[in-house]
Amino acid sequence: xxxxxxxxxxxxxxxxxxxxxxxxxxxxxxxxxxxxxxxxxxxxxxxxxxxxxxxxxxxxxxxxxxxxxxxxxxxxxxxxxxxxxxxxxxxxxxxxxxxxxxxxxxxxxxxxxxxxxxxxxxxxxxxxxxxxxxxxxxxxxxxxxxxxxxxxxxxxxxxxxxxxxxxxxxxxxxxxxxxxxxxxxxxxxxxxxxxxx
Length: 197
What we know:
Blueprint: H1 2-28, H2 31-57, H3 64-78, H4 85-104, H5 110-135, H6 185-194
């Protein structure tokens, strides 16, 4: 009895630690590892969706990728236009799954597998046709927002106006930004030629 409670408490603690790690991941990971974690989570979600249907029913469903792709495409199409494109993507994927489910649940055995495979291929080719003929592109690209660039030097605001973005500090070699020391020879010559006599 005690072992069951300890196992449940350990599982709950592990789940909380995993949720905390996933919540901190976007801020702690580099862009490469962030995209890697997102790809692993997307594949995990697809595997769980496939297991929900194929596990209890013993049906071989090959259309899980089509539903996933429909949601991803809806996200790409509405991502820049709506504040929460995931809701639209979930609605599109659920509507497609409902329509396919009404048709496919009457099939049994290999017929179900062939139908779902054909559905996935049909969806892929319809989207390729639409992209090439109607929108004139070959796919969608989702870009992460760029972080604002900040200078690498340590600067403090100008004492004259604290809100000014200009720096009054010295660069790495100890010279102020208005002096020519620490620059290349050609930059020093240009600086000397523009200086009033």
